[in-house]
Design a protein that fits this description.
This protein is α/β, with parallel strands linked by helices and about 475 residues long. It has 11 helices and 18 strands. α8 crosses α9. The chain is globular and about 65 Å long.
């Protein structure tokens, strides 16, 4: 066995023992590693956002480091879903905007998972990923129960465009529990912004101090102080997700109750753990264009209506090698139109045509169904989270939107105005595409017939074409 001190820092084990035989299932969904407890009931979840080392990149990507695997496993052992996100900061701080989109995509994957309660999510940022926390502290969507920061980088170095400064938004009046784990042996360039953050936070901030800890103490300092600090932070997060932190403990010999007293202390506030927060539509937008299949009146119905929307839509499944030219949609209210798509033709007749419509339920149609439900619920956050960070949306006039940020800018006014209504008439699948015949009720020319084509990859919408 290689001595721990001979291992590269990033490959050293997590400071808390994790039972090897624990009933924890792991699964990769897109760029997110999910750690699941036993059972199928919906439960709260914590997304861990690793700090990344910079331009050179590690031999092992950060989301596969033992420390983050340990955190996520510890959460699953306690009965919640743990998740670790991969993001672009591994390639350097100049990838900050792309990394921000990656985290939004990971949130979308996590919230749409059938084992996760989409209204009980915690985000936990480490080291350099602290630069990504400001946007969430600013937007504060209702489903976000708490934010945790461990030895964070909170100020971008000179020459790096910052997103949203955490220090500027930590004192916002809307309640959002925030926990900072602060180490006593921090580097000066990191410690100074953290001090400013603490000064600005006031009573909005809880703190765990680790006086003898260094940056990365949770994998470098295998001490009682480190174990107690990590255990306390885990318990804090789980309590704010409405769970009992002691309800499911690690295997024998790893119980947190055996840890001796430590100088690490929680300070600044004594605010009780948050209980149920209303699941209203958040102010922050979230992932690109989705036409709606159902009418919902509150964001709380998004998760419930998604499955129903996907299941209730008639679907015609066409083999990938077949041409869609022979298939037609039917609805007497929609005038005929001939639309080209990848060399084939889709025709909408002016008179009803009776077609056999087998009920096909596929992963792609479920994703599109959730997108439509989020659109109908005017939940921009949930809507955008179902799109890939690099998604493309092409309109009938040839104009193109690229990336989730462009989609947000385009759709935000429509969501804020409550203009999110699209009637789904028919659906078929062609290879990797989901093809919907719709009537748009959200444009100046409404009602307007259109064909919307979605390409779904790795559980997210990668491309949309709107033909009219």
């Amino acid at each position: 066995m290689v001595p721990m001190t001979d291992l590269p820092p990033e490959l050293r084990p997590f400071v808390l023992p994790v039972a090897e035989q624990a009933e924890v299932r792991t699964e990769r969904v897109g760029e997110v590693d999910l750690y699941r407890p036993a059972g199928s009931a919906r439960r709260g979840a914590i997304l861990f956002v690793p700090g990344d080392p910079g331009p050179a990149g590690p031999g092992v990507p950060p989301h596969e480091w033992p420390v983050y695997q340990g955190y996520a496993t510890a959460v699953a052992e306690r009965g919640l879903v743990g998740a670790v996100a991969a993001h672009e900061l591994v390639h350097g701080l100049d990838r900050l905007a792309a990394a921000s989109d990656d985290v939004e995509g990971a949130v979308g994957v996590l919230r749409s998972d059938p084992q996760v309660d989409p209204n009980r999510i915690a985000l936990w940022f480490f080291s350099g990923a602290g630069l990504l926390a400001g946007e969430w502290l600013d937007s504060r969507p209702e489903w976000l129960r708490c934010v945790l920061l461990s030895y964070p980088l909170l100020a971008a170095p000179p020459g790096v465009g910052e997103l949203v400064s955490a220090a500027e938004v930590i004192g916002k009046p809307k309640d959002l529990p925030v926990l900072l784990t602060r180490v006593g042996r921090e580097r000066e360039e990191l410690a100074r912004p953290v001090a400013e953050f603490v000064s600005a936070g006031g009573t909005a901030l809880d703190i765990i101090d680790v006086p003898k800890g260094q940056h990365g103490f949770d994998m470098l300092d295998h001490t009682d102080e480190s174990r107690a600090a990590v255990t306390k932070a885990l318990d804090w997060a789980i309590a704010h997700l409405g769970e009992d932190p002691t309800g499911t403990l690690p295997a024998a010999g790893t119980s947190t109750s055996t840890l001796p007293p430590t100088t690490s202390t929680t300070s600044t506030t004594s605010r009780p753990a948050t209980t149920a927060r209303p699941a209203t539509a958040p102010a922050r937008p979230a992932t690109t264009s989705r036409t709606t299949a159902a009418t919902t009146t509150a964001a709380t119905t998004t998760a419930a209506t998604a499955s129903a929307a996907a299941a209730s839509v008639p679907t015609t499944s066409v083999p990938a090698a077949a041409s869609p030219a022979g298939f037609s949609f039917s609805d007497a209210a929609v005038p005929p139109a001939t639309l080209a798509f990848d060399g084939a033709t889709l025709t909408t007749p002016a008179v009803p045509v009776e077609l056999p419509v087998p009920a096909t339920d596929t992963p792609a149609t479920r994703v599109v169904g959730r997108e439509r439900a989020a659109y109908a619920a005017h939940d921009l956050e949930a809507f955008l989270a179902l799109y890939s960070p690099t998604a493309q949306l092409q309109f009938a006039d040839g104009s193109l939107l690229k990336g989730r940020r462009s989609l947000r800018e385009y759709y935000r006014p429509r969501f804020e105005a409550g203009r999110c209504k699209t009637e789904l008439l028919q659906r078929l699948t062609v290879g990797d595409w989901v093809v919907d015949q719709v009537v748009l009720h959200d444009t100046d020319q409404s009602p307007a017939p259109a064909i919307t084509l979605y390409r779904v990859a790795d559980g997210l919408i990668a491309e949309v074409r709107i033909l009219a």
